[in-house]
Specification:
Elements lengths: L4 E6 H8 L11 H16 L6 H11 L4 H11 L2 H10 L5 E4 L1 H6 L13 H5 L8 E4 L5 E4 L1 H12 L5 E5 L5 H11 L5 E5 L6 H6 L5 E5 H10 L3 H11 L5 H7 L10 H16 L13 H4 L4 H18 L13 H11 L9 E4 L7 H9 L3 E6 L17 E5 L10 H10 L17 E5 L10 E4 L2 H14 L4 E3 L7 H10 L15 H8 L3 H17 L7 E2 L1 H5 L7 E4 H4 L4 E6 L12 H15 L2 E8 L2 H10 L3
Helix pairs in contact: 2-4, 2-5, 8-9, 11-12, 11-17, 13-14, 14-16, 17-18, 19-26, 20-23
């Protein structure tokens, strides 16, 4: 029986709970809680039989209960057995479940939280974009877009071939990854992603026996420890260390060099080590150190500084050295593994990777030498570092060009960026004709007229908008996902010269003048500097920051302006977005990597939008400057 109406519960979560997954109320919204409660009572509600409309009205009345009451009742009454029974009865009663995207968008309720009885009609309409049938191993038929379907059929027909797919933002990468796993159900798979949150859909849908889901950091620990629990503990402990540059300098006997003290040297070479770990180089050299740091030093002292960087790197990856006060992250470990010539254990037959565009060269070296079939989905235009690295030549290549998220209105803003990418040879992005992306404009120096997720380039953009919010009384908040840390306080410390900054974006600078020399092109920085001189030095920065919980960014149209960096928002689909002018600022775009980074920043920011997007009034002027800077 085709569903007559739908509960606000995803099919993935429903299947996971029926299979025995633990009930997690912290990860569920009130509508999901109500839906689970409803399914628990469904066997009783259908006796005697009621019409689908009567059943839907019962659920609508349930939503009028307070959230805490719903949660309390669910905690005391939940039973996997009863839930599984309700889920089995639901189709016969005309009740269906929806996908996770629909759960997040919340179009099943009105703005006041009341149930939308028209939702089923809109949700059940067949899509022209997803027009291909795909049969899962369990016999269930789902709909895919034509590019998604071609990719699945390619994998089915070529089970021994590695495949790298260029999939534009909004093309349904995460959804099709789960279908890939279902196609490969008879093979032992390893699913990899950069953060834990991207593993949740796979963990909820598939058992650990069928597919193991790991972050890159967990993979590094698995390869290095080789089942040794003591080594695994040491790796975990090193990842949780707190930096003490004074302690590290003393422990490694690093003394002063020129005008730099031992602790300053440690702080200055940390970014150089990070840059080295994101390369395919075998040792740290002058190319990994900033010119501003090397310039005042003689050639002999430059070589000494490089030697100190290599000394610190060796100490960091020494698993026997546990008293070093410096954090060793997963990226450091992957570089260590690449240098050691290790690979992924042969017990896995297939490796599947989400967000393949963010793979760093050391990880690609590991994958290319590993014995498994490797399937990656990514979008090279979302690599914010401008260093997209492809796999070996023996890999198959496919494209997913249809964006299910972006309407045709947005195509004219995105394809010029794609066309301008250095050395990119791909088909243009195609918009979803069934979607309408509303495009609007706002004055670049003001706030958008409606509460929006304001996407900024970096910490300077965050600082600039916080100042603007204070002046204009807008009450804007910084999204929790932005790792601002001590940036505001360290800016003031560097400006006044009263303390040494520790934030990674500031630690390499010995004075504000030195910082200014490299940032004079950034108008956001200049506005921060002006505020620092007039206000910050008198009243400080402590009252400037206001934070927002992570769920506020991901639960639909925001109720207030949320400031978020593009890097922090790249895994989100946001219904209302504003592009900050600082995303367009640039110093010199004549190099391929510099141009790629700028275009990727703009592309990633614009493609976060799923509904309405505000561009600054200066958008077209800035785009002319960017696109003509190549000549």
């Amino acid at each position: 029986m085709h569903p007559v109406w739908y509960l606000p519960l995803s099919e993935e979560l429903g299947q996971a709970l029926a299979s025995g997954a633990a009930l997690d109320l912290e990860q569920s919204c009130r509508y999901e809680v109500a839906a689970i409660l409803y399914l628990l009572q469904l066997p009783k509600l259908t006796t005697p039989p009621k019409t689908p409309l009567e059943m839907e009205r019962i659920f609508a009345r349930l939503l009028t209960q307070p959230t805490d009451v719903l949660a309390s009742v669910l905690i005391t009454s939940y039973s996997q057995r009863a839930f599984k029974a309700g889920l089995a009865i639901a189709p016969t009663a005309g009740v269906g479940l929806i996908d996770q995207k629909a759960v997040t968008l919340r179009q099943y309720v009105h703005s006041d939280g009341s149930w939308n009885f028209d939702f089923a009609r809109a949700y059940s309409q067949p899509s022209r974009a997803t027009n291909r049938d795909h049969t899962r191993p369990n016999g269930q038929i789902i709909r895919l877009s034509d590019p998604q379907h071609r990719l699945i059929e390619t994998i089915r027909a070529n089970p021994s071939d590695s495949i790298e797919t260029q999939a534009y933002a909004g093309a349904g990468k995460t959804f099709v990854l789960k279908e890939i796993v279902s196609v490969l159900h008879d093979r032992k798979c390893l699913f990899l992603a950069d953060v834990e949150s991207k593993l949740w859909p796979v963990k909820n849908q598939f058992s650990q026996q069928k597919i193991q889901a790991l972050t890159f950091s967990k993979l590094a620990s698995l390869i290095l420890s080789r089942g040794n629990s003591l080594l695994e503990h040491k790796i975990k402990a090193a990842a949780n260390r707190r930096l003490s540059s004074e302690s590290v300098a003393e422990r490694l006997n690093i003394s002063s060099l020129g005008n730099l003290s031992g602790p300053q040297i440690v702080r200055a070479i940390r970014p150089a080590i990070n840059k080295f770990c994101l390369s395919s180089d075998s040792e740290i050299s002058a190319r990994h150190l900033p010119i501003s740091l090397l310039a005042p030093l003689s050639p002999a002292r430059q070589q000494l500084l490089i030697a100190l960087a290599n000394q610190l790197w060796s100490a960091m990856i020494d698993l026997e050295q546990q008293d070093l006060a410096i954090q060793v992250t997963g990226w450091h470990r992957l570089k260590q593994i690449a240098l050691m010539g290790l690979h992924i254990p042969a017990s896995y037959q297939v490796v599947i990777i989400d967000e393949g565009h963010d793979l760093i060269p050391p990880l690609i070296q590991i994958l290319d030498r590993s014995p498994q079939v490797v399937i990656t989905l990514g979008d090279q235009f979302q690599n914010l570092q401008g260093r997209y690295v492809s796999h070996s030549a023996q890999i198959r290549h496919r494209e997913m060009t249809l964006s299910l998220r972006a309407g045709p209105q947005l195509v004219d803003y995105l394809n010029p960026l794609i066309d301008a990418f250095p050395e990119a040879r791909v088909e243009p992005l195609i918009g979803n004709v069934e979607k309408e992306t509303v495009i609007a404009e706002y004055r670049a120096e003001q706030f958008p007229p409606e509460p929006s997720a304001i996407l900024v380039a970096d910490e300077w953009g965050v600082f600039d908008w916080l100042i603007r919010s204070r002046y204009q009384g807008k009450g804007a908040a910084v999204a929790y996902s932005v790792e601002l840390g001590t940036f505001l306080e360290d800016c003031l410390s560097l400006y006044t010269g009263l303390a040494t900054p520790h934030h990674t974006k500031l630690a390499a600078y010995r004075s504000w003048d030195e910082l200014r020399a490299g940032m004079v092109w950034n108008h956001a920085f200049l506005r921060v500097e002006d505020w620092m001189e007039k206000v910050g030095t008198k009243f400080g920065v402590s009252g400037l920051y206001s934070g927002a919980e992570l769920e506020e960014l991901g639960r639909g149209i925001p109720s207030r302006h949320l400031i978020v960096t593009v890097a922090s928002a790249k895994n989100f689909e946001l219904p209302r977005v504003a592009i900050s002018e600082d995303i367009y600022y640039f110093d010199d775009l004549r190099g391929k990597r510099e141009m790629s980074r700028k275009l990727a920043l703009l592309y990633t920011a614009i493609t976060r939008c799923s509904g309405k997007i505000f561009f600054p009034s200066t958008h077209h002027d800035w785009m002319n400057c960017i696109l003509h800077s190549r000549h």
